[in-house]
Design a protein that fits this description.
By secondary structure, the chain is α/β, with parallel strands linked by helices. The protein has helices at residues 193-198, 203-218, 223-236, 241-249; strands at 7-8, 13-14, 19-20, 25-26, 30-32, 37-38, 43-44, 48-50, 55-56, 61-64, 77-80, 85-86, 91-93, 102-105, 110-111, 116-117, 122-123, 128-129, 134-135, 140-141, 146-147, 152-153, 158-159, 164-165, 170-171, 179-182, 187-191. Strands 3-6-9-12-15-18-21-24-26-27 form a 10-stranded mixed sheet. Strands 1-4-7-10-13-16-19-22-25 form a 9-stranded parallel sheet, with no helix packed on it. An 8-stranded parallel sheet has the order 2-5-8-11-14-17-20-23, with no helix packed on it.
Length: 256
């Protein structure tokens, strides 16, 4: 399952069923889980832990050192979960000592061609980054978020669950859950109703999220006032609760 032209460091640990294509390079301190496919000319450097049944396509770079001048050779890592797809020329970098030492990515994510995940990012499950979407360091992306092609996200931003960014969005503040944004700088454009329907949110839940959006963006309330109103709504509509939790944890403020 390892092509004769591939280069695999003796310290790398490859579970049963791992396939490594022509001219791929697997570096030191890499562990790759069962059923993962590493395409031709792909690079996986360590320390990195790659889970099961991932597909890493040609010219992708996974686990390389961070693009950060503070990095000075510290022992940091990248963790990639299960069933992720990393397409051509995508780059996923290890963490930095200053940022906790780890870039951590969950399960069932799609990183399209030329996407970039910088050091110390934390990505949940079922996230899609379309072609050339890029994350600065220390970005958090919650489950089911979608970044349109050429979206760029500033360092330390948080992207909420089930949110959606249009192509070419420039994100410099946190994006609450369920919100659709676009523009340079990105601004809110409504809720991600189509995505919520596809994920089997009920009509009642979607209507509650619409009410939450109106409180947050269309009521002329100050942010702290809107957050208190959302907390009251969340008592009757639990689906709104992740919005209030997100706002309470926001350090950069939100797109508004």
């Amino acid at each position: 399952m390892i092509h004769p032209t591939a280069v695999v460091d003796p310290s790398a640990q490859l579970d049963d069923g791992v396939e490594v294509g022509p001219y791929a390079i697997i570096g030191a301190d890499v562990r790759i889980g069962q059923g993962t496919w590493i395409g031709p000319h792909a690079l996986v450097n360590g320390p990195s832990v790659i889970g099961r049944d991932n597909r890493i396509f040609q010219f992708a770079s996974v686990g390389e050192i961070p693009q950060d001048k503070k990095y000075n050779g510290e022992l940091t890592k990248l963790t990639l979960g299960d069933r992720n797809v990393v397409r051509e020329s995508a780059t996923l970098h290890r963490g930095t000592a200053q940022g906790g030492g780890e870039t951590r990515i969950g399960n069932d994510n799609l990183f399209m061609a030329y996407t970039h995940v910088a050091h110390d990012c934390i990505i949940g499950d079922q996230v899609i980054m379309a072609n050339a979407a890029s994350l600065g360091g220390h970005v958090v992306i919650e489950d089911w978020a979608i970044l349109g092609g050429f979206t760029v996200v500033h360092q330390f931003c948080r992207i909420g669950a089930h949110s959606f960014s249009a192509m070419g969005s420039v994100i410099g503040k946190d994006v609450p859950p369920y919100i659709t944004i676009d523009g340079h700088p990105a601004v809110p454009r409504g809720i991600n109703s189509e995505g919520l329907k596809r994920r089997h949110f009920s009509s009642a839940q979607i209507n509650a999220i619409r009410r939450a959006y109106r409180l947050l963006y269309l009521s002329n309330l100050k942010l702290d006032e809107a957050n208190r109103a959302l907390a009251e709504l969340a008592e009757a509509e639990p689906v709104v609760g992740i919005m209030t939790a997100f706002l309470n944890a926001s350090a950069r403020s939100i797109v508004r």
